[in-house]
Amino acid sequence: MMHRNYIGGQWLSGSTASVDVNPSDLGDVIGEFARADAQQAEQAIAAATSAQPGWAALPGAARAEILDRAGHELIARADELADILAREEGKTLAESLGEVHRAGQIFIFHAGEAVRNPGEFLDSVRPGVEVLIGREPVGVVTVITPWNFPLAIPAWKIAPALAHGNAVVFKPADLVPASAWHLVNILLDAGLPEGVLNLVMGAGREIGDVLTGDRRVNAVSFTGSATTGERVLASAQSHSARVQLEMGGKNPLVVLGDADLDAAVAGAVEGAFGSTGQRCTASSRLIVVDAIHDHFIDRMRDALRDVVVGDARHRATTMGPVVDESQLAQDLRYIKVAVSQGAELSGGELLERATPGHYLSPALLTGTHNHQTINREEVFGPVASVIRVADLDEAISVANDTEFGLTAGIYTQSLAAAGRFRRESTAGMVMVNLPTAGVDYHVPFGGRRGSSFGPREQGRDARDFYTTTKTCYVRG
Fold this sequence. Notes:
The structure is a single chain. The chain has 2 domains: 2-247, Aldehyde Dehydrogenase, Chain A, domain 1 (3-Layer(aba) Sandwich); 252-432, 3-Layer(aba) Sandwich (Aldehyde Dehydrogenase, Chain A, domain 2), CATH 3.40.309. 38% of the residues lie in helices and 23% in strands. It has helices spanning 38-57, 60-76, 78-89, 93-113, 152-163, 177-189, 204-213, 226-237, 261-273, 293-305, 325-340, 392-400, 415-424, 462-466, and strands at 2-3, 5-7, 10-12, 16-22, 25-35, 120-123, 129-137, 140-144, 167-171, 197-199, 219-223, 242-246, 252-255, 285-289, 344-347, 363-368, 383-389, 407-411, 429-432, 452-453, 467-475. β2 (5-7) and β3 (10-12) form a beta hairpin. It is globular.
């Protein structure tokens, strides 16, 4: 079946098409998906521009009803959608099910935000004049999402954009079009008017500059690589569009000598290797004090032997495959560089299973130093490195010594140590006795430095990006 782009209320074929393949079984084709060209991208922007004023004019309660219906429909169809997600991205069925539920919760939350858009009423410094301060939609928003969370990340961008009266042009990652296609259909079935949400699938190199550089686009929300993020920023700012970027991390997880080692090892395994390590919040740098360093490594190696790598849809699987051949090659390349720079490798082996797929065992690199490549650049795979430090002082210094700043974590039973780490960490999110991965939908998400740019995503803070302030002076 050919799955088409949705532009201005019509399902349209593209100039070319891509084939969506299951990374757990390379012989399994999910479907064919139309790829939009530059002309169709412009058509989608025009449709959004035309539809946006009418959508913004609807009462917030009317927008809320549509988003609420979509959220509940996502949850009602969780088993079906989780199977599709696991099949195209390689995330385990349990992780996929959790992501579908999270996407539904995000839409339900932002349905409420559509009617929770408060303003201010103030007296002017001039007698007889009143001041009204309100928030209005920015207009047309381009949403560009990555492949690692095919439903949750589109949800946390699209839901607040629509809740606050914006129209959206949505370009999902080329690797995972099926989840996006089903999400758009659910929103349409929930009653979304024509043109308010437009789906353009395809390669960013073909349509990305149009979607970010067109002067009718008022805002761009992007999640992806730092290199692409820089290009998005330059293109959007060339016409003064507002920009929101999430671009990854090199997240530290500190383990002190007084930590509950069972909890720390479990948190490190989940943080580093959950979702096959393919998430920007992954615990890629494990910073361990000398007093327990060797014992921690022994426990990690034991725990990783229990990780079951296999078909994402098999119930026994605890870690699915790498998403595609290119990402697998990148993972192996970083492992090879780390070993050449003196790291000792445990795991990191190509695996064969009943069906051909991109299977890689969890890789733990020990004996590394923070200046080495493996600890400077984001791998985005099931690869974690261990750095030995003397004490908390050195641990904080090493944790902060990175160009990124998304999330950071610490395992300790000391309130004083936890409090100091929380205060001195330069990451945008800090976890205490928790994995670095795993965030809530009702609170801000984002980092500092090379990880993020612009207002925070998720929760009530999403309003800061998707609305603009209007100040009105009224003389009675």
